[in-house]
Amino acid sequence: MSVRQERALEIVHKLRRIYPRAKCSLDFKNPFQLLISTMLSAQTTDAKVNEVAKSLYRAYPGPQELAAAKPSELETMIRSTGYFRNKAKAIQGASLALVERHQCEVPATMDELTALPGVGRKTANVVLANAFGIASGVVVDTHVARLSLRLGLTRHDDPPKIEHDLMKLIPEKEWTKFAHRMILHGREVCHAKTPKCGDCLINELCPSARTPLE
Asked: Domains plus CATH for the chain?
């Protein structure tokens, strides 16, 4: 085992102790809701998506209803999540594909999910891991990408390459929870502009730490 792998495992173990109950922060009742909410979460907070989703799924409870929605009405409903026109087009396209190709059921394979309009590997990983319990990879959002670089777990800033590096370093059984814990740590401690290095409990494992652990 390399020094880098040993340090990665230490990070996994520490994050597990710090965030033992980490889970997906998007609210959902079924795979369809998780798929759409994940698509809406780009460039906004999960809290904002959860707020919007309450009325969204009352109005459009399934892919048939969402595919048939008037674009202008859908755009108005999701406007506060940002990039609402592109998001409306993507989620309607994905919903229509579910109706036409999958009998209104969300597929449970990476290839089928990423074949849906607007669905990339990150979204597919979120759905597979949290709706179906399938660890197909590591979710790489902005927090996971930032922390992976700072912690020296990758030298890349491209999500697919970051994911590839993490999958080699992190045990498969930890992939899902590791991503949740990295996201929580990014939100609570390792902020993009002003990381709280002095409060960070994995400070000694971070080559980018700016201040000693207080």
From this structure: 3-22+138-205 (1.10.1670.10), 31-131 (1.10.340.30)
